[in-house]
């Protein structure tokens, strides 16, 4: 019971720190939409690096990643390394730097806005925002569900699911509404650094408790299917590549990550960030996922819905330390969700509400953005109470859904002959293909001996965008010159 | 070197960095070195190399293919 009190104490402590940071950020905030959503494009290297990282990977690093290593083997290190350390790094330049230049030159705050302006089409803007929110909403719901479940388990049911998830939701509404991008990014930085330290401390602690890193790893050889051998089981070359490619591209179109492409203070910040990516990836993933695999070798029993890392820590580290890591993981969940809420709200207010309902002033829009956060969070909380199967499935396949957007967007950014019709067909076609593969038997889930439908859909989107653009001409109102980025 | 050659060269490097992040030639290998599977060490080393190449790129070729892209391509 003492460690329950400690865990709750740490979570509350984290919330208070976040809130304090939010208040400071709020005092520095101009009352404009650009400042609220993008901190006026002023993030420096460390903050940009950690906020992107924490937003993207924190909860995943603590929970899902080790679970996969536990179930299938430590090859997950390679999948995530390729995905986030290499492919995402390259896309950070190819898509991210380009978006940064274009966004700065034209004042774009969202992906939909950037595309809508280039193709002179409010409908395209609505399509992109709609597709994004469609995939984002269930994903946020999953985070709330995770938080609620974790708090219920933590307090042995004393705090019921609805109260835990509801409390976290209320806190996030208040905090995100207050602080905007600046506060969210600062909290992420703190949380990301904390996470890095905790993962290494846990790694060293567990290794020490079982007699060294070598002893822990040696146990993997006895696992069914030999976890020491590269490949085997789930891990086929097709699986490794499909997963890494699909998720890396998907990540770039996740609203909370895509919006971070716009926020760097300067070109120098983006340049400094790039080489740090692979280093951070290795530092975080190797210990985290090795621990997941060790848990299997050491005979930790985890049920299908249980997270293995807390179980491993409970076995080999003192209660207070395990509590600290669990609390860190909760914080991680919150730091992912708050960014999603902020981006979801900006897509909603800027790309859907404003073009359709009212043309708002900057101040009014910043206000609407805050209302949007509250609406978005409340709706996803309500959805998390019922947990409809369809929404759960959408959330689980969200990365693939976002991946379908990436190649049409890349084509639009670089190829001036891209037409509005090409974008409609490329985005619409690949989304339809992917949705059919997720929800029906019409389109199979895997092709050519193990390539996922997500990767096949990406190629389809690319082919459709280019071929339709070739046979159609620019529509009235298109302006390819807005993406021209002259050398400076 | 002209712009196009450099672009193709760096693109090839990018593809190679990604393609060799997974040691395909060690498929099935189960050796352990200094407490970790040998292919984990390969991956750690490779990502360090990736970081160095990224750094060189920011010094030598930043902007290639992205800046100076105008209507004419």
From TrEMBL, chain B:
Cross-referenced Pfam families: DUF3311
Sequence intervals crossing the membrane: 7-27, 39-57
Keywords linked to the UniProt accession: Membrane, Transmembrane, Transmembrane helix
Official protein name in the record: DUF3311 domain-containing protein
Organism (species): Halosimplex carlsbadense 2-9-1
